[in-house]
């Protein structure tokens, strides 16, 4: 009984918190499962309702009613606008939607702060609810008990509409068979807009009613979005009741779990999310789940075997690596495979190689010239861009070449960064030692997490890697003796370029060191990707079923790619520490993961150089341009996200394809998930 008395109030708080998350997550599930939109701006819709309700609250029932109506309507209008924004991306897959909605979230969040201010707004509730009642001998806020009742009524009403009305039938039909729905006289486009407006209305209503519980503030949208994603993943899209119970469980972990097991609570949610996703992926055969586009009309196994066989024959005859039976090369964009003429390289082949090498050489010349052109601050930004560029290249390897879109590469990036910072703090300041140790540490981390990632496909990969990244963030905040916690690390000695040298203090010295490391890492990456091993990886992405049927260990190829990408991200993290001379959790958080994915998409799905350019563009926008407009960095970055999704469907690499190129790059598409079931298929 004493245990019950001690934890009764947190337990009831957990129910209220869970019901709040259920209402929000129901809208997120509706948008994704029925409308097919992976909406990373859903937390911003909650924030719209919360800010509106707080602004209109005056301590009266009328103020609460007006705030509820206005906040719900504003969020519903934003949801309808989101429908119009995502319609052009319907054939581009969930990755483009995720980037677009994340960009819209950055823009909307910045505008809300500009309009309402950065401080958390006070919320005034009606006087009758601004009191406490006796609950099993404990005093408990009356508003929270009232909210529990309102949330239950809202959930019951939503379930009834979805399952017992003609509107709900149209929604379910839109998810199951839009063509059949159109034959009945209903417009699938109108239903799509209505679904997203309803999802926004749910988020907005939850924001107004939940503002006294999760007050409107600068980090509210991110918190609500992350927790709602956990609820949707745990509950699935098959049943509203499963979502309900998952939300209650998440609410209890967030409140009761903190009081019972404070050291473990930060890990429980995302660990559970990752575990559920991994278990689900075990029941889906990767070869049939779709790992990319088509096979390009030719069998990659045959040309790989011929190429390797011919290579060994030519080496035996001392004639280099020219193939007697012809060479088959990939287009470098995940596109069709094309056969090249028999024999050694002719003039056209050499010219083609020269054209491929030209962008790298031009970029290298520009980077070498930067110390003579930029001031110290701008040069430090260029060094940061090189570090983020290596992270973006690691994302390119996984997303473009392996077909595993990731939001979790900041985890090995963080491992490399903190390994370097702790080495420097311990007196190991030699640059090559730091790079090697960071790469090994990040690779070992990828060895541990790789099996959880390579079995999944599509949006499931995004969610698993997101969970891994968030678990890493939780560990960073908890392991203060290693990471410094929320304060980060600072004050360690500068890096030495070589043994016996002095620590690099001047910006041009640090930049030149970062440039050398980045060039070596990028050249090595390009060499591997263009080698037979890289061709095997591309073949696995383009024709996984054929590769598996021919006996190729596709899982092993993906696992090695995951390890290599992790090591490259670790090198990027090491460079970041060297350039910045400090390290904070914000440098390795979710936003950096989204920036790296955007950089890879901006550059082109399989363009290493494009990834570097994309990272440079992001750093230029985030730090240099935003410095002339203080406080609006998120707005500028959000605009960059939106512009990149709409204007560069194939990335910078696609610009040189000419107007004849059609459709998005392969890396911008996500194959469907077999565990993604329309939300219209509910079993209440």
Q: What is this entry, summarized?
A:
The protein is 69% helix and 3% strand. It is mostly helical and 684 residues long.
Compute the number of structural domains: 2
* The first-level CATH class name of the largest domain: Mainly Alpha
Q: Enumerate the spans where pLDDT stays under 50 for 5 or more consecutive residues.
A: 287-305, 311-345, 657-684
Radius of gyration: 26 Å
Short key terms for the protein model shown above:
3% strand; 6 strands; two-stranded antiparallel sheet; 684 residues; 27 helices; single chain; mainly alpha; disordered C terminus; ABC transporter involved in vitamin B12 uptake, BtuC; 69% helix
Describe what you observe in this structure.
With 684 residues, the chain is mainly alpha-helical. It folds into 2 domains: 2-262, no CATH class; 347-668, Orthogonal Bundle (ABC transporter involved in vitamin B12 uptake, BtuC), CATH 1.10.3470. The protein contains 27 helices and 6 strands. The strands form 3 sheets. A two-stranded antiparallel ribbon has the order 1-2. Strands 3-4 form a two-stranded antiparallel sheet. β1 (132-135) and β2 (138-141) form a beta hairpin. The longest helix is centred in the first third of the chain and has 32 residues, at 2-33. It is globular, with a radius of gyration of 26 Å. The two termini are 34 Å apart. The model is unreliable at 287-305, 311-345 and 657-684 (pLDDT under 50). InterPro entries: ABC_transp_permease (IPR001851), LivM-like (IPR043428). Residues 327-343 have a biased composition (Low complexity). It holds the Pfam family BPD_transp_2. The chain crosses the membrane at residues 15-38, 98-118, 142-162, 190-214, 226-252, 264-283, 357-374, 381-404, 433-454, 510-529, 557-580, 592-620, 632-649. Residues 314-351, 664-684 are annotated as: Disordered.
